Amino acid sequence: MTGELKDGETEEEFLHSFIRKQGNIYKPNNKDMENESLNEKAMEDVHTKEIDLVNRDPKRINDDVVKVDFEDIIAEPAGTYSFDGVWKASFTTFTVTKYWCYRLLTALVGIPLALIWGIFFAILSFVHIWAVVPCVKSYLIETHCISRVYSIFVHTFCDPLFEAMGKCFSNIRLRTTKEV
Q1: What is the DSSP letter of 62?
Q2: How far apart are alpha carbons 106 and 101 in whole angstroms?
Q3: How far apart are CA 21 and CA 36, in angstroms?
Q4: Between these two residues, 101 and 173, which has the higher pLDDT value?
Q5: Pairwise CA distance, residues 6 & 16, whole Å
Q6: Could you read off the pLDDT of 125-134 as tens digits, one per residue?
């Protein structure tokens, strides 16, 4: 430890002041430990953040896929119009049916599917982190070793052989003549 005992200070008092100045694992004073605690807090915030109930597609992944309105499905060309009341009733029926069927399906199937997709992506993350990346890294390390051995083999045996063959065949001349 650095520092010295002051006059009248016991060794225990010195030890407590030293730990207080340096910081301990419970109350960090140094920047690295403080940054680690901030990172841990940020990780907790990911799981406890509030959900935006107004904008439910903030990344706009369904902008052009499932936006289906009455006008996108049913349209009457000019000259073949139904009664106005039928048109209005059809619009209302379509819109309300789509709205309530979606709500009913999400209430019945949404939570089980969320559970299934959560499990699926947890398994996918687990496999990627604990199996795929280590296998790829291992493969690249082993391939690098093999590529060095292969490179030495080629430069030692194949390069001189092909260079000699090239010199031998460089004096060969082909002439083509047409027979009439």
Answers
A1: T
A2: 8
A3: 19
A4: 101
A5: 13
A6: 999 999 999 9
Residues in the chain: 180
Please, are residues 10 and 27 in contact by the beta-carbon 8 Å criterion? no
pTM above 0.90, yes or no: no
Tell the residue number behind the tokens 């996108």, with chain if given. Answer: 72
Cα torsion angle, 46, 51, 52, 57, sign? positive
Contact at 8 Å (CB) between 23 and 29? yes
Residue pair 34/28 in contact (Cβ under 8 Å)? The answer is: yes
Q: Using CA atoms, how far apart are residues 56 and 66, in angstroms rounded to an integer?
A: 14
- Please name the residue that has the structure tokens 């010199």: 167
3-class DSSP assignment, residue 60: coil
Output the CA torsion sign for 56, 59, 61, 62: positive
